[in-house]
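Supplementary notes for students who missed Thursday's class. We covered one full example, reproduced here. Read the sequence, then the structure, then the short commentary at the end.
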Amino acid sequence: MALMMNHYDQAYVWDFVSRTSKPDIYKLVFEGSKMAEVTKLWSGDVER
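Structure (token representation):
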């Protein structure tokens, strides 16, 4: 996921990956070939 996001926006690097809970679900909205919006839809934070 982060590799694809980084292709469109170089702000999505290892720091972003290390801060995400796993699994997460993100909605990516594109305008043409540009990533216009990123929305976190679900966080996988669960107690184990």
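Commentary. The beta strands are 24-31, 34-43. Residues 2-8 form the longest helix (7 residues). If anything here is unclear, bring it to office hours.
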